[in-house]
Description:
The complex is a heterodimer. Chain A is of the alpha/beta class. Helices cover about 35% and strands about 25% of the residues of chain A. Chain A folds into two domains: about 5-80 and about 160-255, 3-Layer(aba) Sandwich (Rossmann fold); about 90-155, no CATH class. In chain A, the strands form two sheets. A six-stranded mixed sheet of chain A has the order 5-6-7-3-8-9, sandwiched between helices. The termini of chain A are far apart. By secondary structure, chain B is an all-alpha fold. Chain B is globular. The interface of A and B includes residues 75 and 109 of A.
Amino acid sequence: MSDSSGIRLENVSRAFKGRDTIVQALDNVSLDCPAGSFTALIGPSGCGKSTMLRLALGLDRPDSGTITVSGRDPAEAARAGLTGVAFQDAALMPWRNVADNIALPLDVLGRKRAEHAGTITDLIELVGLTGFEKALPGELSGGMRQRVAIARSLVTSPQVLFLDEPFGALDQILRRQMNLELQRIWIKSRATTLLVTHGIDEAVFLADRVVVMQSRPGRIGRVVDIPLERPRRPEIFTAPEFHALQDEVAEALDGH
Amino acid sequence: MATETARRRNTLRNAAIFLVLWEVIGDLRLVADGALPSPSAILIALWRDLADYPPHILATFEGAFAGFVIGNLVAVLAGILFAVSPVAARLGRGLNIALFALPPIAISPILVLTFSGMTPRIVLAAIGCYFVTMSATITGISQTDRRMLDVVRAYGGSRWKELRLVEIRAALPAILAGLRVAAPAAVLGSILAEFGGGGRFGLGAYLIGSLGRADPGRLWGIGLAATGMALIAYGICALIEARITHSTRAVNIAATAPGEERETRPVTDTLIALGSFALPFAIWWLLLKLMGTPEMIAKTPAGVVDYLFLAPSAPGAQSRLLAALAETLPMTIIGMAAGLAFAFLLALASVVRPGIVRGFMPIALVTQTMPLVALTPLLVLMLGRGPSVILWITISVTFFPAFVTLAQGLSMVTRGALDVVKAYGASPMTQLRLVSIPASLPWLFTATRLAVPRALLGVMIAEWLATGTGLGNLLNQSRGYLDYGMIWTVAVASVLLAVIFYQIVLIIERRVLRSYGMRPAD
């Protein structure tokens, strides 16, 4: 994979106007996620992490600065089908069954679903939902729905993967399981990944580096590298070096 | 479950008591010397006239069904257009308010003049459906889960893809719920068009034809048949809805025309507002030109101005119109205020005693789907032809929708807000004063906006059929004298009146709600 499949933000600013207030969601932010890397964004509410993700997805435009995804404009990269995305709360369509929900990006991009039938079957197996192909989202548990969303984000075999608090609505136990699965999936696909999260342990467990953001105005405080070897096993959650990294991120969150 | 069966049993028991009481009162001729026949007498009359009904029911059905299909098709397409394009929504605002507020009976004669055959019924039935379905479509589309749209957009999906893959499907339950409410409205529209003349068959024609005969049993029978038709139409739509979406949802008829509150740009805004005002007149003019109806019969906007202000007969026309207005206006306002006040008080009482709603809501929902025309001749029989019949009809047509809206609004007051004052030992009255009444303000305004056109319709129907006063009578008389100018003038005046009423309520609503930091309900 060439270097061009990364995510790059240069001097990006974005402000939102309220009734008589201006919220500087992002103030002159630069970030470079090399191809094949896993970056976690963490920070307090309102620090602009979700704004950053929406900008990189082409859902919003910056006031100033440039953003490239795989060397292209974000909206263009999205139309070319280079990106994949999973949001908090799954955002599945209640009237589509599991297979149809996973196939949604293909419908949007105008690709033939028949040509990707194998991919869809593989993805359903990958996220452990074999046998539930025809189930509607309403018939699934929260964790299963989230796994459908993850499978959907991978159906286009994306070079760049955006995950916006994908496990935010899950309980701690389920979240651990999903973290392990996500790592397994990521090691297979090696897509450049940007994960927005509230969980320090999740960020440290999954990422190559954790970008700690600060609010008012939204900006990058510190970048903490995570030099832990992969694949990381569940036991690592109790290892001293894991705790040391967690503490480092927590300190950075406090503004040190 | 046990309470559910108990409640059902209670409802059945109440209905049985009600029927027995009615039978006794009817058989003893206690009300207005037999104007209220007993259920058995009504059924006997129905049986006697049975052979008369099929052609009438078929004719009304034909008009209602065609209008239902056409009106809803236009409504869904318009709803999609308005949801996608804010400018179109603002341009269409004037037309939408006019279609929402116009009293169908007022334009029924001009439709009969302009079109022939079944067309007037179809048009009026279509108009009856249009606003409900159009606003349901917009609500459905605009309430689509943003996150689903984000997924489509994140893959570079176009506006069309968003509509096709997400919004139209997400709006389907709302649209179907709209159709359910529109179905009885289509029946009502067809019947009201039959009042305007044209055609021997139809329940409306049958009703008008039977008015002169002292046969309360038959009038009640026709009313029953009309109500039955509306209920069956409602039921069929509810069934289809349940089959498709696996649920039926409660409907609040939105009483707000789309296209409000954007960032202000004075010049463009003024232009759009002017366009929105001019559009209904332009369509009116264009339609007549396209159809090539003779100018003598079909008056264009210019023709109405000429009739009312320029022609030699203008002063006479003006004074007749003003005299009618002076009779209609006070009745409309008093009737509406009384209907709303009853509804508000009963809704508040139902907060203190929830049993009231449970006992009353089924009846209220049934009457909401009941064509009010079915009610009018019966009230005339019972109350005579004095002004009181106007008030009772107006109150009865405004009361039920207002009550349903207010009761729903009050039931949506957050438990949390009530619990806070309850935790400090507030009495039911204090709870009402501090929480429920302020929280129900937006719903009160919504109920008022819903009541405006219904009140005017109720007054005009009563005037037409019973009292021989006001705008309703002027319209009916002008029909007899072939005074085409006056027919058009009354139609325009009553639509304008309804729109002005509506706008006044809207302005007061905005002021009041803004000062309380609230948003309009629906």
